[in-house]
Write the structure tokens for this entry.
Amino acid sequence: MRLPHLLLSCAAFMLAVTVFSAQPATEAEIEIAVGKLLSQMTLAEKLGQMSQQHYDTKSLTNPVSSANAVRNGQVGSFLNPDSAETVNKLQKVAVEESRLKIPLIFGIDVIHGYRTLFPIPLGQSCSWNPELIEAAGRVAAVESSSAGIRWTFAPMLDIARDARWGRIAETLGEDPYLTGQLGAAMVRGFQGKDLTAPDSIAACAKHYVGYGAAEGGRDYNTTLIPEAELRNIYLPSFRAAKEAGVQTFMSAFNDLNGVPTSGNVFTLRQVLQKEWGFDGFVVSDWESIKEMIAHGAAADLHGAARLGINAGVDMEMVSTSYRDHGAALLREGAISTAMLDDSVRRILRVKFRLGLFSNPYTDTTRPSPLLSEENLRVARALATESMVLLKNEKSLLPLSANTKTIAVIGPLADSAVDMRGCWSCRGEASECRTVYSVFKDYVGAKSKVLYAPGLEHASSTDTSEIAAAVKAARKADVVVLCIGEPHELSGEARCRAFIDLPGAQDQLISAVAATGKPIVLVVFGGRPLTFANAAAKAQSILYAWHPGTMAGPAICDLLFGRANPSGKLTTTFPRTVGQIPLYYNHKNTGRPVPLDPKAAQTPLGTAEDPKGYYSQYLDIPQAPAYPFGFGLSYTTFAYSDLKLEAPDANGAIIATVTIANTGTRDGVEVAQLYTRQLVGTLTRPVKELKSFQRVALKAGEQRSVRFELPKHSLGYYDNTGRFLLEPGKYHLWIAPNSAKGAPVEFVLPTQ
Ligand code: GLC
């Protein structure tokens, strides 16, 4: 090595040791440290920081090639490392052998738990419990960071209105406000109170933006979203995550109005950077930079890298177009040094905020936090609160522990692997507790528990085992029938044209129902399913989602009344897939269906004209199977006396309602506040969720519940990006779900 180079390296080393061994205490000090480091970096090192590699444990050469890439400054991050040992090994190369000693950041998809698995996010959202969801995020951070992970690609904040889309499982439902509130809770849980703490992990708001609007509910498909819809429906949850301090964003796979989101200057530079002032960094989705070639937005990797860097995607996940074409793009003036420096500055800033320069290694001597009693307690609590009671005729539930004989039937009664759901990270099926595996702990010594899967697998069409299930049902006093969607039909690239019960489940249910025994249906799934036949044959229905490690205990706590269901749906359940898209915050149209859906119905096959020229189908009622916000309890709640107080000094709308627990059990009610702007410059939704409260009431107790709604929350964006807060008449509801309650009217005065 020539003398000048040697001196340069020594100087850099001295600088790295002196400047970075102590964690910069303030943002200002971080900026100085970032600036100093950036000034030392070569172009190749900058492009290296902008590159993330997949740590593929299967490829034999990977450890060596990964270490070489790190040593040469060609990579700044890895996803999916297999252990803390791998992380420390690669980190050692980075901070002791590379020229500038810049630590790596390791990420993985901790979507609903690392080893302790919580319900899938769509299930968690039905808890409407930000505090508990934050606690679950904290558990996931503590567990994953013990394996060297300091970055998760979560929360997923996409809005989905199409249950055919497999990734609806990862969403927090169809509502922008609720998704923002719960997504922000996840960010707080993951990132903790002190980002430099070794058990804090950077969160990642994904998939930015509009990915859930994929046409036809087909993953990766085109999205066409007018600016008003983008700003009013798809952006708010990401804005909430940014305000909660999320450190990274992930661009998406979809093209938005003809421009891929991984090369979209409007959403990334204009909205995220300029309007919102986001100062973390953006990572692409898996090869989503390279996929801009398939989109037809770039002719080759050279063009794809140009689009990504110009748009402000700071780090490229897995494909290597930045590293391979960055220098040429700079030479030809297609990108600028300022762009590269801005991206690298953002990446270094987050690494400093995480304390990686002063504390790059994972302490593997700490006692393992995996699957601790406390972690499992949180998982059980969240699973219990995530489940939704959809039906409970004659109060069949809760079951008595002294029921003489109970038949536990169905392909999902004892299928541990299906409790995990999609994106199960390092959660082991063997650690998931099923309904059947814990059921006996809930019944009396004299009770008998019979078991029959009925189908060998949830998608099986082999009906040979149904007879045994019927036999068991005949001997029982009550049947707990566990059915639904297996895990492999849910998640990324798992879209379904029909969203009914797979395999021969309907035959199983009909055969068991023919015995006349009362049936409790426990439905598992990663999406709203259509299961009208089964629902009609069951007296009680508990929708359990894919509930995670503590599935069995949570379900049995509810079935036997050790817990009272409080979950409420966060997506609209269609009667049939033909109704999709179907969502509560829809527009009224010029021909809304009359409130009494039967009024517009025309029996099929008659000569008469359709009774109503309305926005409706002839062959099915307009109403959903179960509306947004719906969920029952073992007790009952009554709402009364909804009224508005005079607005406060800031013009906030103040509403109060009395809620009474009119039943015989203590319970929690999720009271929901909706508004409607009756006339606007743009047509406005018939209802929009603006607030909610979880209200715990003892049997017989009643309470006045107060909501304060900032006036600003009534505003919306038009198609030029202008924010409008318009005077005029509004309606306001506080109700148990989006289909219930009578509104009060108020007038927002002219400003
Ligand atoms: C996947 C997903 C994204 C995930 C990433 C890394 O394709 O779209 O959500 O974070 O790749 O696994």
Remarks:
- Residues 162 and 581 are 5 Å apart (CA to CA).
- Confidence is low (pLDDT under 50) at residues 11-20.
- Residues 79, 109, 153, 206, 285-286, 492 surround alpha-D-glucopyranose (CB under 6 Å).
- Residues 381-559 form a domain with the Rossmann fold fold (CATH 3.40.50.1700).
